[in-house]
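Course assignment 3, question 2. Fill in each field.
Student: A.L.
Task: Predict the tertiary structure for the chain below.
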Amino acid sequence: MSLNAERSYKMKLRDVENAFKYRRIPYPKRSVELIALLAISCTFFLFMHTNKLNSRLKEMEVKLQPSEFSALGLTGNHISGHDAGKHDDINTLHGTYQYLKSTGQILQLSPDKLNNTPKAEIDVLFFNRVPKTGSMQLIELMRQLGKVHDYEVEKDPQNGGVLALLEPAEESDMIDNIVNFEDGTVFASHVNFLNFTKHEQPRPIYINMVRDPVERVISWYYYIRAPWVFVPGRRRNNREMPNPKWVNTEYDQCVTSGEKVCTYIENSLLEHVGDHRRQTLFFCGHNEFKCTPFNARLPLQLAKMNVEREYSVVGTWEHTNETLAVLEAYVPRYFADASKMYYSGLNADKQNVNPMKPHISQEIIDMVRRNFTREIEFYQFCRQRLHKQYLALKLNDLKRVDKSLARLSEAKEMAINN
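Answer field:
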């Protein structure tokens, strides 16, 4: 091929390449507009949704970044009178968070690990209610929830109000009675912890409530002296009216005068059914030797062990929001929407108000508290466990929001790139 012919061939080949390189494929005008509109719409909705998730994430970060004024959402709703001004106390929600964070335990918090409900082998909720902890308030709430979630609340009709220590045969009979309830039943009774496993019976779902032990004994002191309590009891059981001096003696007088009923001696044994100074007894069991010594180490350890191993939730009305949130999350079959129901005007707490109970001086309270060291330790243990369960839920929520935000960010980036 001549030189000129070769040049002519190369020029023609280049022209063909350029034609393919710069050609335009025509699209209908309306199709182009539609694609542009869809792209803009997707980008807008992704932007709005990402902003919403960012806002939620910031809210969660505020709740999980405690400060002097707000720890985990500790507004007036979450701080009780016991917690006000004590943010560094490990027994407060803020203090528990700070302790778990400083020790690295916050990273291991998980609702699944703190939830004993899956251990239940029958669909029966057992509430072995501790007297003077607001148990009637919780029973009323469950009755209202039962109408929505289709379950019944059975309240033990025992005449004495509180069951004493049960013999093994009596404990076995009561366990048999509970096991035979229909699925979806709540059974509430003033009775010590019942060990279903020891009696080779399937375990129910355990819950309970606790209260500051000194506030509780003071509340009991005035409760049994209220006329609407002892008058019906007198008529029902044909008893004599109580001594007016007994009725009219104020609690502080009882303490300072050294009366037996207001003298709390360590390791003293259970004196009678109405001896309600031991909150640990309701979590320890029916062994007189192991569980009845007052303010002793062994009952404390056994009570802690049973709470940790058996109870789904041990709440307290002194931390209402946390208790309701934890009940909702850990026992949803019976407590779904409990917070909504409680704050919709239930007002069950009115039945727990005793107008006869006067203000007790802090000096008397401090004097009594010195004799309740291990009872107080158990109460604080239950509070800390409740705080851990609540914090685990909040951390879990944050992780879910974080994952959703990451997925949306990826989707947004892909939409922009496309």
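Instructor remarks: Residues 60-87 have pLDDT under 50 and may be disordered. The radius of gyration is 32 Å.
Grade: pending
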